[in-house]
Amino acid sequence: MLLIGTEILPFKAMAFQKGEFLEVTNENLKGKWSVVCFYPADFTFVCPTELEDLQHQYATLKDLGVEVYSVSTDTHFTHKAWHDHSEAIGKIEYIMIGDPTLTISRNFNVLVEEDGLAARGTFIIDPDGVIQAVEINAGGIGRDASILVNKVKAAQYVRNNPGEVCPAKWEEGASTLKPSLDLVGKI
Amino acid sequence: MLLIGTEILPFKAMAFQKGEFLEVTNENLKGKWSVVCFYPADFTFVCPTELEDLQHQYATLKDLGVEVYSVSTDTHFTHKAWHDHSEAIGKIEYIMIGDPTLTISRNFNVLVEEDGLAARGTFIIDPDGVIQAVEINAGGIGRDASILVNKVKAAQYVRNNPGEVCPAKWEEGASTLKPSLDLVGKI
Amino acid sequence: MLLIGTEILPFKAMAFQKGEFLEVTNENLKGKWSVVCFYPADFTFVCPTELEDLQHQYATLKDLGVEVYSVSTDTHFTHKAWHDHSEAIGKIEYIMIGDPTLTISRNFNVLVEEDGLAARGTFIIDPDGVIQAVEINAGGIGRDASILVNKVKAAQYVRNNPGEVCPAKWEEGASTLKPSLDLVGKI
Amino acid sequence: MLLIGTEILPFKAMAFQKGEFLEVTNENLKGKWSVVCFYPADFTFVCPTELEDLQHQYATLKDLGVEVYSVSTDTHFTHKAWHDHSEAIGKIEYIMIGDPTLTISRNFNVLVEEDGLAARGTFIIDPDGVIQAVEINAGGIGRDASILVNKVKAAQYVRNNPGEVCPAKWEEGASTLKPSLDLVGKI
Amino acid sequence: MLLIGTEILPFKAMAFQKGEFLEVTNENLKGKWSVVCFYPADFTFVCPTELEDLQHQYATLKDLGVEVYSVSTDTHFTHKAWHDHSEAIGKIEYIMIGDPTLTISRNFNVLVEEDGLAARGTFIIDPDGVIQAVEINAGGIGRDASILVNKVKAAQYVRNNPGEVCPAKWEEGASTLKPSLDLVGKI
Amino acid sequence: MLLIGTEILPFKAMAFQKGEFLEVTNENLKGKWSVVCFYPADFTFVCPTELEDLQHQYATLKDLGVEVYSVSTDTHFTHKAWHDHSEAIGKIEYIMIGDPTLTISRNFNVLVEEDGLAARGTFIIDPDGVIQAVEINAGGIGRDASILVNKVKAAQYVRNNPGEVCPAKWEEGASTLKPSLDLVGKI
Amino acid sequence: MLLIGTEILPFKAMAFQKGEFLEVTNENLKGKWSVVCFYPADFTFVCPTELEDLQHQYATLKDLGVEVYSVSTDTHFTHKAWHDHSEAIGKIEYIMIGDPTLTISRNFNVLVEEDGLAARGTFIIDPDGVIQAVEINAGGIGRDASILVNKVKAAQYVRNNPGEVCPAKWEEGASTLKPSLDLVGKI
Amino acid sequence: MLLIGTEILPFKAMAFQKGEFLEVTNENLKGKWSVVCFYPADFTFVCPTELEDLQHQYATLKDLGVEVYSVSTDTHFTHKAWHDHSEAIGKIEYIMIGDPTLTISRNFNVLVEEDGLAARGTFIIDPDGVIQAVEINAGGIGRDASILVNKVKAAQYVRNNPGEVCPAKWEEGASTLKPSLDLVGKI
Amino acid sequence: MLLIGTEILPFKAMAFQKGEFLEVTNENLKGKWSVVCFYPADFTFVCPTELEDLQHQYATLKDLGVEVYSVSTDTHFTHKAWHDHSEAIGKIEYIMIGDPTLTISRNFNVLVEEDGLAARGTFIIDPDGVIQAVEINAGGIGRDASILVNKVKAAQYVRNNPGEVCPAKWEEGASTLKPSLDLVGKI
Amino acid sequence: MLLIGTEILPFKAMAFQKGEFLEVTNENLKGKWSVVCFYPADFTFVCPTELEDLQHQYATLKDLGVEVYSVSTDTHFTHKAWHDHSEAIGKIEYIMIGDPTLTISRNFNVLVEEDGLAARGTFIIDPDGVIQAVEINAGGIGRDASILVNKVKAAQYVRNNPGEVCPAKWEEGASTLKPSLDLVGKI
Q1: What separation in angstroms does the CA of G147 have from each of G174, H71, H133, H144?
Q2: CATH architecture of I12-183
Q3: Catalytic center at which residues (chains A, B, C, D, E, F, G, H, I, J) (predicted)?
Q4: Contact of chains I and E by CB distance (3 or more pairs under 8 angstroms)
Q5: CB–CB of H81 and J181 under 8 A?
């Protein structure tokens, strides 16, 4: 089933952020833009570079009114320990959700059932809790958080300017297209 | 269900390429790398810019041993007509598949059922017919084909160098990570 | 199941008419007579001659209070493009419905499931939305719109003159039969 | 379900032809072209004019290698009686099938269940027993057998000339269309 | 299941009587005694002699307050034609029901499914619509309407004289038996 | 379901005949004609007159090659006792079957379930075990065994003279009808 | 399932007692003690001696406030006939129930299904309709009604003296046991 | 369901006899006559007197070739303890089966489900493992083992003398009845 | 399913304690701490030593506000007898529940179905009826009641000091751990 | 269902031991004794003290031929990290299994479904893979590994000395009980 355009399913989970444990539910993702970034496991290889890369964009994303959540099937205890012991992870300021029940990973169709681990999926969710963009890579292929920022901007632009669309390779400030009957079959 | 890591499902469809009609099945996607790029409809707005952008990368992708397929739920007749009449589309040299039975769009979980149109999904498939990367954007948000090239390279690198992984923001030639027990918890 | 005598099933679709896009539902077919003409695909062979032939009768049908709808599983975008680029189709003034969800084609039992295309079916529907006549030909066999006009007249005559019937080969103005007990077994 | 393109379903029935009773099964319809003409009931109003009209074309149809069958849910006894007593029906030379079990009428989707009578449906069936054309009219609207002859000729032409199609209003001898890629989008 | 003692099931059908068409339902059989006489088909062999024989008793049955209905799976149109053309049937004054939907024949368990024809069953039904006597013969064995009259009289006597029974071979006016405990085991 | 034309269902029961107990199964009814006569209960009112009446015809029926069986849901012990103590029943020479399991009464659809007693049904069965005639009367209405003899003769005549039928009121020696196409619609 | 301790199931049946027919239901067994004695069939071998033996105890049982019912699957008509003709049975004054529907025999789990006859079961039922004692013997083994009387007395004693029990071989007047904790493990 | 005439169901259990533990299965009951005597619980009130009474008849029953089994839902350990500590039970020489799984008590339909205890049922089983007699008493009503001996003798007599039956109150040596047709209705 | 943390299921049973019989239900276990100790059978080997050992801790457990229940599938009668006859068991003062219906043993998942006996399971239940600790040993392995006391103390400590936990080998008075975020990953 | 006495269910998982990652399946647990120790989560409170306590007994258990496995729903990566960073855990030499798929925790009925964490369960498994002892504590109550050693010894003694049992509080070297009939009811 296509997840794009659907509202996120209910979940309740414990998370770690800046030295505190907190509970996060699907309701927390409503009312502002969210980026949810799944990765397989704490204390593994590609993951810290991806998460660190995401941290580098966190301020930018915050400025865009976006909250960022990382999710793995580890517990929030493990998230804290990783944060304590890893230099890269120790810099992370966004919310790290623990999903040991596998619920959230199943909700977003990224669970690798035979491993009990999430695939590397990134989701952009609008303030209505509706998924607007999905990117999932097989193990081994890293993601680029700077592209994510562009995509968030495009999604926000489309939401704020109903009736316009962002063409391929669109970047903030570039001209958009205003769909009209005259354009049909003309581009 | 997670599509990453699964083999593509069977399909049979008519396609258009460089002035010819041809039949394409899931078997044609085996034996080399493939990019499958879904879009909603011929003769619409964002689509031609995305497809044109993809054409710009076609030579590069061919050099990487990748075949490119675009798919919409239009017929191959309409693909030909679009190709005949649109300057942007007329440049396209890759294979344009018609999916009026909606089968392929359903196989890749990108069908918007109430519209009968595909969402903007891009899939990288390895020579075994196994999906390695997925990107899907809501209507209005364009894709950037140059990023796709990088992702293909990363996927190929991982396949050709078992035991290494591409960290975040990896680009061709950059150093990769060789997972080893010593690295666990050390990055 | 016999479609004759049944009310048309619900649908909602986008259509193209004289340079405009419009939404059409089954409700739009109520209150006046309708002709619904299915054909396999835009930009194909027999189809334009049939649709052009239908256009030739459009004024006559309008005079009879009949609206005309053509339907294929293409989108309304493609209908517009075809209209823009084909001399024959460019003349069409009636409503061209896009059925990419295949719903209408299934409703009228004309969908060729393995192709995702409609068979060449023509339906006459009365102002109550009830199907009064059906004609379906296999691929390759064209239809003759002038015969359709005669059939519409006969259907209207029967509706307006309850208690009379049109014998074989009846044409407008010819005498009809008034069924009576005396006629039973006498013709 | 679309009947066009499907093989006729099995049946076994008694029939009347030229003073004799005979058994007819679906197998009898194989090996030559057939026209099957349903009508509601013997000794009724429109029916005899339609059946008489069909008789007028019987010689022509026979010359085209077509056998003709009329079917109602009456018995073959009643068919004989009607033939004996009606001047119009007395001229009929083709095969009149009795369908009191309602099986054939159900097979061809023309049974009006609440009446136990067949609707006015005409079917052209090719030598493989596959339905090529259907025409069904609501009660009161007569059929024109001369149009049927044209349609049979078109069906035979298409079968005998694979790769050509008959455009709208085609009549025997008129030029046909040879579908080719070049024609796509050009008519 | 035993039909004796059960109320007749609902039906609605067209019938022919003395030059008129009329609608008959199960409700019409309530309030007076009825005889319902099934036979296979109009224009066949034994049937007319049986139906003629029944007509000979019609006046007597009317005097007993009994209405008579014949039923076959033919239409009422065919009944009229048979009445018009057969000397024997032309004399019939009782109601001839057409059962082309096979409903009534199924209701009374007399339908020969593979033929679509009714077996030769005769039913006596009391003013409550409850079946009091059944007689069914295989094809070829005729019925004797005079015996039917006797049976009707016995059924009426039993209904009008609760507590008495008609012994074997009882005829009107003969003495009946009054069941009493003393008679148990004494006859 | 119509019993006429169906083979009798399997049963096994104890019976009484002329001072002896014997086992009877459905197989015993094969190879010769049979009359099976159900009645409600031994030691009751109408029953003995009916059974006595049947005995009066027993010799005639035997001459016709017919075996006679009476059946009630009493045991064979009770049949013997009734035979011992009733003058009327004491004359009976045919086979009296006990059906305390209610099996045979259910097989012939004559069981009154709420009473555990059989209705007054008479069946004529041919040497193949196929039911040829049924007569069932409500409680209180007696049967006439002499009519039964006529019906048996008619049934035997039809079996022995395939292609002829006995018209209404036929008695032995009377002329029968030879169905032919010429007779259709002529009687 | 254990019948002891359960209330008897509903039934309605005709019975014979001292020259009269009467209706008996399960409700008639409430409010006083009952003995229900099943046997296979009237006019058979062991049965009359058992029933006669039971009659010998009838006065005693009546004095104890017990009503006695015999039950077979014969009808009440047959019970009357047996009573009329058998010297032994003619003495019986208790109620003889007819169970031709097999309902009561099934209720008490004594029906031999393949014979349609009851096994030789005797039941003692208390004034609440609850079964207190069961005895069933295979065919051929007779029962002894005098033992039944003792058992009834014990059942009544236990009901009237809650907290006392009758040891093995207890007879009226003998000392009973008063269960107390001290007796546990002491007898 | 009637247990009389059915073979005992499979079971496997531990038992106690004369200072030893042994396994007993349903197979052990084949090949000789058996008496199976259920009682609620060890160390209770009526039970020991019944079991002691049964022991008094044990020698007699052994002489008749009968093995005796007592069964309660206690364990064989508890049987041994009861045997050790109770004077009455200490005399018992027959086999005391433990049925803590409740299997045997359920097999013989004597389990009081809400208590987990067996009702006071006694069964006589022939050498084929087929149940010939059942006696079950509600709690508080004792059994008399001497009557059991008589019943065993009757059962054995019937088995050894096929064709004879034991009338009511029969005791060993008394004359039996030889069922014959002449006796039907004569006793 | 995990029993820890679930409320005990409903049961009702008879028990023995200090010379009295009493009824115990699941409700009796609410409002105070309980220890429920299952064992296979009275009068067996390991069991008495375990039960005696438990008695030695009974006073201590009582002081801790804990009631103790032993459970086997024996009856309460057998419990009394064992208490009367065994020196070890005779000392027991806690409540000995009889579970002949096997209900409680099934509720606590300790029933060995093929034996009808409970496994050696010990359960600590808090005043809300919620199971806090489980220990089950295979046959032959004894339990140590003194460890049980420690475990009860730990369970009580945790309940009374929310927010503290007892580390491994904790004994009363030893320091506990106060979980805090700082401790995560620090022990 | 009782786990004691059942064979462990299949699983496959990654584990960490002494600086290495290894795969462990249920088959690895066969052929020697095993202790499987579940705990909720790495980097939490009671857990390290329990696991450290278990490590103290590891040498002793190894000497007894026992392999030790700890299991949590964390990954083996997290196990390594915990081992790297925790002084207590860093001493652990036994096998630490990661169960992120929750399979093993479900197999042993210790999964707290709403948390995705295992309860504190310890299992002793014999060389046939059959569970011999279970101990599960609610969160907060620690376990004592020294008791575990005693229980293992008892289990091994029972296995090696069939026919002997270990009484309560048994420790190695203490005398055991040899179950014999004489002992029944004597302890």
Answers
A1: 16, 24, 15, 9
A2: 3-Layer(aba) Sandwich (3.40)
A3: 47
A4: no
A5: no
